[in-house]
Design goal:
By secondary structure, the protein is α+β, with helices and mostly antiparallel strands. The protein has two domains: 6-178, Transcription factor LuxR-like, autoinducer-binding domain (Beta-Lactamase), CATH 3.30.450.80; 195-249, Orthogonal Bundle (Arc Repressor Mutant, subunit A), CATH 1.10.10. 45% of the residues lie in helices and 16% in strands. The protein is built from eleven helices and five strands, in the order ααββααβααββααααα. The protein has helices spanning 13-22, 29-37, 73-78, 89-97, 105-108, 114-123, 155-176, 195-205, 210-217, 221-235, 240-249, and strands spanning 48-57, 60-69, 101-104, 127-134, 140-147. The protein has a five-stranded antiparallel β-sheet with strand order 2-1-5-4-3, sandwiched between helices. Helix 8 (195-205) packs across helix 10 and helix 9 (210-217) packs across helix 10 (221-235). The longest helix has 22 residues, at 155-176. It is elongated.
Length: 254
Amino acid sequence: MPWIDPSVGAIDGVALIEALSSLDQVSTKDDFLWWSQTDVQGFLPHRAFLAVTGKVFHSGIKPQSMIAVNIPESWLAQTQAERDRYQTFWMQRWLQSGEPQMFDLARDGTGFGAGNLKGFRDSGLQNVAAHGLFDIHRDQLSFFSFLGMPSAPAATHTKLLKLMVPGMHDALLRCMRPSAIPKTLFSPPGQLLTERENEVLSWICQGKTNSEIASILQISTNTVKNQAQTILVKMKVNTRAQASAEAMRRHLVL
């Protein structure tokens, strides 16, 4: 079992371990987005998420890729500086210190200029926990922001992000590689099943439960549950039985 600092305290350690383990199955941007909105919510609840990879300049970060969910477009546009640079005030602070950034508008807002805060205040995403990681040459980075947390972030979240971000960094870079696009068996318009989702689908078609599939594939039951739900969404069906029937109709399983 991975080592976890006992001072992390109220964080659900089992949920954290399962979430970090399930990162191994993340291979596309859609996978990463789903992971951030399912596996993570149990111990780090948030309303919005932003992940950025980019090249470091003195005037900010030039994004190479971005994954965002529930981020107001008007506020995101305001974070784009001149020459397509991207920077938020908590990213500026992180670039200077390298430490996780915890921000609560009511508590910490006086430390920033009104211009920096207006768009953020209007977004309604007051609480932020953010951290990132440089590559070995320190000219590329990935940076992750969890926004709209239900309460002000605390020291517990600082420890949590230090545990999470190395794995998130590796998974996000893996998603960005062209060679990481998985082979698929099922491809409805606009949606694709990953290889692992196809494996789960094949066992669903054989009537296996989530616990049985988890044992067979040597992954957590929670991961199987999330992947099964993703399969239903992508196949545009409501039940496992309907997914099985659709898979057989399309000759995806024997």
